[in-house]
Amino acid sequence: MKVLAELKSELNELEFYEKNNDLYKFRQSKELANSSGPCVSEFRRLMVEEMRPWITEMTGIPLTDTVNIFCAQYDHTDTLLCHDDELEGRRVAFIYYLVPDWSLENGGSLDLFDTDILGYSRNVIARLVPQHNYFSFFEVSPVSFHQVAEVLAENKTRLSLSGWFHGASLPRPLKPPPEPEVTEPYKEIDESEFFSWINPTYTDPNTQGDIQVQFEESSEINLTQFLNPEKYQLVADAVRGAGLKWIQMGPPDRKHSYRLKGDLPEIVEKCHQFFQSDPFALLLSNLTGLKLHPLAEEDEDESEEEGTSEEKVYNPRCRGGFGKWTQGCYTLVRDDDSEQSEFALEARLFLNCEGWVAGMGGQSVYIARGEDEELITVEPETNSLSLVYKDKETLGFVKYVNSSLSKENGGCGEFHDIQMTYYE
């Protein structure tokens, strides 16, 4: 149809802006008003004057004459992860597709989730494949969880007009946040066992002093070749082994990742004990200047600032474990995440990431609360330990792992890590 070709041509001439954070990666125009062009203006009129009353008649949902419309382009590896669209006034979401021939194998489907008894997202129960000149809409509610699946086609663009009709928002029921992971006190470990794991470079007092100076300047550091190479290889091989129990972590509107549970291979269990150990906490204190161990020296400047009227209470402890990262894995920033609301040192040691290159995802990203700008980005690097100290206004997430990681596309297929969080 000539009118659709003209509309598509007009949209492709718009200025698009990259949107890239924990939740999404795609390109989007500014909000489209009547001044955006004749075809867009006519589309907007159609939405307000004809579609709005028709949707109200079909659904019984009262709608105002407010409508937001944007144009979005999704290219290879772009995605919009699980969310519910709820913002004040959004009542009905819509998508109008202007795509080439498209199939499920091209990705980019609109995936709809069901919910559990508490109202958390659970499983994809329907996938709507984009079709040219198709219009989709759904009610925005506390359980309207959906996503745009990763676009897998390398030479096609998923072009759409999307937005929201407005009305009175539905009440959002209170639901308990997911239970935080249990923290544990540090464990005892034989001195010989401890030193057998670590690269001797990092036990040298002069090296520790240099690292502490660097860490205190930037609150982050990357320690390469951290583990003894032989120990590292044994652990790296073990977590690749068959028969391990990898548990999918969720819900999808918060994370999709895998954690190693159950009985661990002996070498993996010993590695975990090393990172949970009393001497490792003391080592971290020496490397960072943080008081993560009772024997660690307290920062003199901090003591002077706090004064002597009230002594700071320390409760050293840690939590964490082994993870597996494959295509589709990610974690999202959530303001109600209690695990992100404390001062903490986050440590992440990477395994089996040979073949990983920038753009595949899986990197740790830290942002200021309420902002999208990346403060710190930690790229996966084999046998490298990243240390990042975050305050209550710093949030961290793991970027979506896309299809470039797959072996079919030349990647490593999957990689592993041990992620630990340490508290003063």
Walk me through the structure.
Residues 303-309 have low confidence and may be disordered. The protein has 2 domains: 2-166, Jelly Rolls (Sandwich), CATH 2.60.120; 191-298 and 312-423, Jelly Rolls (Sandwich), CATH 2.60.120. It is built from 8 helices and 21 strands. The relative contact order is 0.13. Helix content is 22%, strand content 30%. Strand 1 and strand 2 (24-28) form a beta hairpin. It has helices at 2-12, 38-59, 191-197, 205-218, 229-239, 266-275, 278-288, 300-306; strands at 17-20, 24-28, 67-74, 79-83, 90-97, 110-115, 121-128, 135-139, 146-148, 158-166, 220-223, 245-249, 255-261, 317-325, 330-331, 344-351, 364-368, 374-378, 385-390, 394-398, 415-423. Strands 1, 2, 3, 4, 5, 6, 7, 8, 9 and 10 form a 10-stranded antiparallel beta sheet that branches. It has 424 residues and is α+β, with helices and mostly antiparallel strands. The longest helix has 22 residues, at 38-59.
CATH superfamily of the largest domain: q2cbj1_9rhob like domain
How would a crystallographer describe the biggest sheet? 10 strands, antiparallel
Classify the beta-strand content into a percent band.
25-35%
Could you tell me the mean pLDDT?
A: 92
pLDDT below 50 for ≥5 consecutive residues: which ranges?
303-309
Q: What portion of residues is helical?
A: 10-25%
Architecture of the largest domain, according to CATH?
Sandwich
Count the helices. How many? 8
Strand segment tally: 21
Into how many domains do the coordinates divide? 2
Q: What is the fold named in CATH at topology level of the largest domain?
A: Jelly Rolls
**Order of SSEs, N→C?**
HEEHEEEEEEEEHHEHEEHHHEEEEEEEE
